[in-house]
Every structure is written in structure tokens, then in C-alpha cells.
């Protein structure tokens, strides 16, 4: 679930990143550390140093990785599958729509799933880009619905959740970005879309229709790429954290076979 999805607007070459083994280790640790605060990481490093000192040796990357995982409770089996399908759904749709690189996926936080994605800056700000963003944000819910037949509340519940972000984008398309179906040239911002929806039921219906269309579009993409979607979910379930190279290896296969 993308409760705290990180966005990076720059592009990097996966091949260049793989050329340095040290970079690969750092990427693995960064992927493992998704969801941790700065204070959490400081504590993990402090404990890793203490462990190495007791063993009369230098601190290792394995000490840090063990420290990250040791601070997290095990995720129940069924919940781990749900998170794996949810995050794989986001990744597959993100890649299929060529929004940018998928830098990492993690379901090992004990607090939900995380994904770290990048966006191609050259494609931003068009109607197509916003519609693609909506499909990507709704893809986790679509994945749960497609495979598990029932959705969880993981897509919503917070101001930075999938549903909150998608609703805000759809609201802005109607009111501030010039892509609305009613008075598109009027700039009508508002800090609280929820309050506007309560008063303007027509606007609420138009925004909801955008979200429904995005959900259907995401589901269509996942059905068309079902083998790769399931392969990525299985790999994420097993590994619990995957860096860009591991994710790209599976997603690139879909480009060759689709």
C-alpha cells in the first residue's frame, strides 16, 4: 500500500547503478529501510556498531540489514500476500504506462507496503499524464480486487494514501488544471475537497467517475499482464524487499513477451 509513497522526478540508468557492487548493497539497504524515520535509522546503526564492537570486528552491511529487520515484527501470511499484490499492482501499472522507473518495493515494514518510484519529467502536466497517474494510484486497489476479490482499507485512511492523492488529482483536474468537464477555464482552488464535495454533489460525481475509470483502466492493464503481475507479487512476497534491479528484471520480461 502506498501510505507513504516517495516520489523522485529524476531518471537514472539501472545498468550504471549495477556497475558498482557497493551501490548495489546501499540500494538493498535503502529498500529495506523504507518506512523508517531518521531516528529509527540512527538507532539501527548505533545498535549495529555495538554488536560489531562486542564481536571485536568492523561493522558490516549485514549488521545494519539485520538491525533493520530485527526492529520489525513478522507480517502475518495472508496480510503479506495482500501487500505483495497491492504493491506489485502499482509497479506493473507504473511501468506499463511508462511513468518512470520503479526504484524499490517493500512489504517488510509491519505498517503496510511501500514503493519508491520515479517520474519522467518530460511527460508531466498533460491530461494523459494525470490520467495515467490516477490509474497508477488506483492500481493497488485494483490488484486486490482482481486477485483477492475483496479490497482492504489500505488504499485510504490517511491524507497521503492512494485514495486521498487520487481524489486530490481528480479534484484539481476538474477545478484548477483546466481539464474539467464543466467550466474548465475557471480556476477554483480549495484547501479541503471533502468540504466541497458535501456541497456540490455534481462535482463529487464527476470526480468519482474519474476514479472509477482509473480503477477500471488499472484492472485492465493487470489482467493483460497477469503472468508478470503474479510473478512480481510472488517475488516480493518471498523477498519482502526488492530494489530497482530486481523489479526491473521482472518488468522488462513483460516488455519482451507482451
Strand residue percentage: 5-15%
**End-to-end gap:** 26 Å
CATH architecture of the largest domain: Up-down Bundle
Rg from Cα: 20 Å
Structural class by sheet pairing and helices: alpha+beta
Flag low-confidence runs. Answer: 1-18
Order of helices and strands: EHHHHHEEHHHHHEH
- Strand element count: 4
List descriptors.
alpha+beta; 4 strands; 6% strand; 258 residues; 2 domains; four-stranded mixed beta sheet; Methane Monooxygenase Hydroxylase, Chain G, domain 1; 62% helix; 11 helices
Please, could you describe this protein's structure?
Residues 26-66 form the AAA ATPase AAA+ lid domain. Keywords: Hydrolase, Protease. It comes from Rhizobium sullae. With 258 residues, the chain is an alpha+beta fold. The protein has two domains: 17-70, no CATH class; 77-257, Peptidase M41 (Methane Monooxygenase Hydroxylase, Chain G, domain 1, Up-down Bundle), CATH 1.20.58. Helices cover 62% and strands 6% of the residues. It is built from eleven helices and four strands; from the N terminus they run E-H-H-H-H-H-E-E-H-H-H-H-H-E-H. It has helices at residues 14-18, 21-32, 38-54, 61-70, 77-96, 127-148, 162-175, 193-199, 201-224, 226-239, 244-257; strands spanning 6-8, 102-106, 114-118, 241-243. The chain has a four-stranded mixed beta sheet, with helices on both faces. It starts with 5 loop residues before the first strand and ends with a helix. 38% of the residues are buried. Residues 1-18 have low confidence and may be disordered.
Amino acid at each position: 500500500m502506498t501510505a507513504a509513497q516517495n516520489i523522485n522526478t529524476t531518471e537514472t540508468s539501472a545498468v550504471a547503478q549495477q556497475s558498482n557492487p557497493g551501490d548495489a548493497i546501499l540500494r538493498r539497504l535503502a529498500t529495506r529501510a523504507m518506512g523508517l524515520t531518521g531516528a529509527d535509522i540512527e538507532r539501527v546503526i548505533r545498535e549495529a556498531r555495538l554488536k560489531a564492537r562486542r564481536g571485536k570486528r568492523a561493522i558490516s552491511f549485514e549488521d545494519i540489514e539485520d538491525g533493520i529487520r530485527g526492529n520489525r515484527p513478522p507480517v502475518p501470511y495472508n496480510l503479506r500476500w495482500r501487500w505483495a499484490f497491492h504493491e506489485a499492482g502499482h509497479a506493473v501499472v507504473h511501468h506499463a504506462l511508462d511513468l518512470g522507473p520503479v526504484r524499490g518495493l517493500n512489504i517488510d515494514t509491519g505498517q503496510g507496503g511501500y514503493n519508491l518510484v520515479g517520474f519522467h519529467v518530460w511527460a508531466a502536466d498533460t491530461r494523459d499524464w494525470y490520467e495515467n497517474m490516477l490509474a497508477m494510484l488506483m492500481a493497488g486497489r485494483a490488484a486486490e480486487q482482481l486477485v483477492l476479490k475483496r479490497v482492504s482499507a489500505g488504499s485510504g485512511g490517511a491524507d497521503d494514501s492512494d485514495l486521498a492523492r487520487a481524489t486530490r488529482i481528480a479534484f484539481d483536474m476538474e477545478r484548477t488544471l483546466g481539464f474539467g468537464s464543466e467550466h474548465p477555464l475557471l480556476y477554483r482552488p480549495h484547501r479541503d475537497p471533502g468540504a466541497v464535495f458535501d456541497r456540490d454533489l455534481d462535482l463529487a460525481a464527476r470526480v468519482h467517475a474519474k476514479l472509477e475509470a482509473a480503477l477500471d483502466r488499472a484492472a485492465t492493464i493487470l489482467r493483460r499482464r497477469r503472468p508478470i503481475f503474479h510473478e512480481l507479487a510472488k517475488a516480493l512476497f518471498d523477498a519482502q524487499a526488492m530494489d530497482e534491479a530486481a523489479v526491473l528484471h521482472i518488468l522488462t520480461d513483460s516488455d519482451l513477451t507482451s
